[in-house]
Amino acid sequence: MAARKAKSTKLFVLDTNVLMHDPTSLYRFEEHDVYLPMVTLEELDNHKKGMSEVARNARQASRFLDEIVSGKESEIAYGVALKGASKSLAQGNLFLQTEAVSRELPVQLPVGKADNQILGVVIHLVHQFPKRQVILVTKDINMRIKARALGLAAEDYFNDQVLEDTDLLYTGTREIDQSFWEKNGRDLESWQDGGRIHYRIRGADCSGLLLNQMIFQEGGDKPFLAIVKEVNGKTARLESIKDYSHPKNAIWGITARNREQNFALNLLMNHDIDFVTLLGQAGTGKTLLTLAAGLMMTLEEKRYSEIIMTRVTVPVGEDIGFLPGTEEEKMAPWMGALEDNLDVLNQTDNESGDWGRAATRDLIRSRIKIKSLNFMRGRTFLNKFLIIDEAQNLTPKQMKTLITRAGPGTKVVCLGNIAQIDTPYLTEGSSGLTYVVDRFKGWAHSGHITLQRGERSRLADHAAEVL
C-alpha cells in the first residue's frame, strides 16, 4: 500500500464519533487515504438503532460504506477508490482492517476498551508504514490526549467548521467614519421616501457592504444609523432606520436601550425580512426584544396568526418523556426564559390594573405555542412567528430541518449565544447557529445582529465581566 502511494499523502484513521457526527466525512479528506478499524464498524453497528440524530447518522455512514465497497470485495485489502462514490470529491482510497493487529498496547491501557483498540491499530499502522504520516481523527478530546501521550499524531475533525475563528463571524454591523464619506460620498444623492431618508453612495467600499447590514457613525448630537438596502457593484443605497429607543416608537412597551437593540428591533419589525438571527451573551435582550416584536405583529398588526417557540432540550433529539401531560406541559421546565420575559412584557401595561393585566396575560398565552423540536419533521408553518431559542445547540443539519419548515408568510428568528454550547461534539465553529449566520449574510430577506451590551441589571453586567 505504501509503495504505490506518494509520501505526501497521509493515512487518516477515523474514530466512530467522526462518522456519527458527519457521515460524509469519508469523502472529506481530498487526495489522502482513509482507514477504518474493525472496532469502528462494530461501534457503528451498535449505535444504528433508534430515532436520535446519532442513530440516523450511523445508518447513513453504513449506507455510504456499503455503496463504496459493493462489488469491490477483491480490492478491500489494497484500498477501494473513493473517487466514484464521492463523485470526484475524494481522490484517495478507503482501507478496511482485514487482519488482526499484532502490535502490543502499552500495559497501562486496558485491551477491552474500543478506544484503546483503535489506538492499537494506529500504533500498528505507524510501524507498518514508517514513511507515511498516520493520523488519528477523533472528536473525543481524551482520546486525542491519550494518542499524543503515546507519541501518535491526532487531530479533531475540522471539515464541519464553518469558521476556524468565531471572532471573524459576521456581526451584522459596520462602523464608518469621515474618511468613508470622503471616499464614497462624492456623488452622494439623498431623498426622502415613506418617512425615511435614502442615500445613494458610489465608491470602492460599496462592494464590501452586505444587504441588510447596519451602518453607524458616532459623533455629533445624533449618530448616523442606516441599513444597506441595495448593493450594485460600486454603488449602494442606504436607508435611515426607525428610532426604537424613543418612547413614542415603543414595541409592546419596550424601547431599545442601546444601538444594537435598536438595530435588532428594526430587523424584527421589518416585514421584508423573513429570517433574523440574534447572537449575544446572557442578558443582552434577545428573547425580550423578539417576544415584544412577535406580540406586536401578532396581536396588534395581525400579521401572524400565532407565535411558536421552540428550543433544544439537551440531550438533543431524545424523547421528552412518557410523563403525563401534553407536549406543552412537558416543555414547560425548559421554557423558564419565556415565562420571565412575559412577566416583563405584562408589567409594561400599567393603565389596565390587575384584572386587565390578567386578561392580557391569558390572551398572550393563548397566542404563544410551545413546541418540541422532536416533532418538527414534515410540518409546515403558515403565517407563524417562529422563535428558535438556544439555537447554538443545534447542528447544521437540525437547523436546516427547522428553517425549511417555514411556509408562506412565516418569519423565523434564531436566538443564541455560541459561548454556551451544551451539545456533545459541537463547537463554536461547527454550531448550526454559526452556520446559518455565515450562510445567510447578504441575502435580501435575512438580517443578523450580534448584541454587545448586557441590559439585565448592573449586578448581572458586573458578574459577566469579573467572573
TrEMBL record:
One Pfam family linked to the record: PIN_4
Keyword field: ATP-binding, Nucleotide-binding
PIN domain residues: 10-145
UniProt KW ATP-binding keyword: yes
Keyword presence, ATP-binding: yes
InterPro entries: P-loop_NTPase, PhoH, PhoH2-like, PIN_dom
Family from the record: Belongs to the PhoH family.
PANTHER family in alphabetical order: PIN DOMAIN-CONTAINING PROTEIN, PROTEIN PHOH
Entry protein name: PhoH family protein
Source species of the chain: Chitinimonas lacunae
